[in-house]
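Q: I have 347 residues here and want to know how they pack in 3D. Can you give me a structure?
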Amino acid sequence: MELTIALLGFGNVNRALARLLQRKAAALKTDHNLTITVTGISTHSRGQAIDPAGIDLNAALAAYAAGSLAPLHKGAPLADTMAFIEAVPAALLVEATWMNPRTGQPATDSDRAALQRGMHVVTANKGPLAYAFRELRDLAKARQLGFFYESTVMDGAPLHSLKREGLPVTTVNRITGVLNSTTNSILSRLEEGVPFAAALKEMQDVGLAEADPSNDVDGWDSTLKIVVLANVHMGADLRPADVDRTGIGDVTIEQVQAALKEGQRIKLLCEAWREGDAVRARVAPTPLPLTNPLAGVMRTSGGVTFEMDTLSSLTILEGDSSPDTTAFGILADIVNIARGRYRLSAG
């Protein structure tokens, strides 16, 4: 079968996806009888392109590097993102765009518009799940569409598909995780005696932290991620404002080194737990015993532990993350939508 897809955003993640689609084209055909054709790409600053016959991805990567996708566009000019979503001839939208962590926009509106138009949606964006998960999930179900989001937490690690297919009749009672690469790397470097500012600059230099690092350092990214996990895996309806949030800005070299001498390691820990009929959540620097698997999560790796009424506990650890690992999570979602896995009951 052929699946036409559109890419909303063409930053590091969707450019990595473009390269992955080319590298895995033969395997997709052999293993899944699936041919994926990109018919549209929309960016914030480098233009938009639609070609119903399919966009050559090498040409798209080169055009992006040159500064504009406009030479690849076929048809009438497009006014904005919503015009692109309305016009692009694609069955599925991959959304990997910038998002304000305090509002979930504009990503939430984009995903909603695509579902309303009748397109499957794969998002790598935490905002839509942190601010409108139930609405978007129910909209997709009502229209018999896929709304998948594997790459929103721990990149391509199969967390959400685990819930969908691997843990039937299971109640998750508690989730704990180390989920932000920037803060985890900074805390690891503080243990080694590297000053906070220098450790942060290292992450900025390799492109894993923004010029304004507040979303990571102040715990916003971690807050969004624990809200996503609580909403998807625990049936909660939390918003980021519901989370008790403390960042790592006040953590010192002396504190992390003292904890290590006492057999502990300070992590920016994300937690969600049941309290009666409610689900509570917090994000805060927390000392963990070195015997805890999450204490061994270093630098840009990540991990999460689920405590359940069936398997007792299950911990998933991920190696170092990158746009390539995020792109794999997106590709896995695309393949599973093509396989019709969205028809399973989810959450």
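Q: Anything worth noting?
A: The first strand starts at residue 2 and ends at 8. The mean pLDDT is 94.
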